[in-house]
Write a structure and sequence with these properties.
Elements: H1 2-8, E1 11-17, E2 36-39, H2 41-50, E3 54-57, E4 63-65, E5 72-75, H3 80-88, H4 97-112, E6 115-119
Antiparallel strand pairs: 1-2, 1-6, 3-4, 3-5, 5-6
Helix pairs in contact: 3-4
Length: 121
């Protein structure tokens, strides 16, 4: 039954951009950014904290805050510590391997001073 639930979840994806381009508009490419998926319900639960994070929607010429729920978000390196705090403070991280994978992905981006990319539902 657990496998069935995982297949049916509405997912949101996060990856790392190796080389950010100032003028590029980003599009969905889960494999290129080696994305990890989490259940979109987490985003609902974290929303009040996520909207405090500086981000960009689709390209670096569209500064915003939070995540584009049905689009693409670029998360700059300076916002990653706050994002990591949100993920690590979720008590469900001990039960959900996907949250742990996301925490690892954020750590890797922080270590490399890289942007992350988020693909909404």
């Amino acid at each position: 039954m657990e496998g069935y639930r995982q297949e049916k979840m509405i997912k949101t994806e996060f990856g790392i951009i190796e080389d950010i381009e100032e003028t590029r508009e980003y599009f969905y490419d889960s494999k290129k950014y080696q994305c990890v998926c989490i259940d979109d319900d987490y985003i609902d639960d974290w929303w009040n904290k996520l909207v405090l994070l500086k981000t960009y929607f689709h390209s670096l010429d569209r500064p915003e805050f939070g995540l584009a729920r049905w689009g693409i978000t670029l998360i700059p390196p300076e916002s990653l510590p706050g994002f990591q705090d949100i993920v690590l403070s979720d008590k469900r991280i001990n039960e959900d391997i996907h949250l742990r994978e996301l925490a690892d992905k954020i750590r890797d981006a922080m270590n490399g001073n890289k942007f992350m990319i988020h693909f909404g539902v």
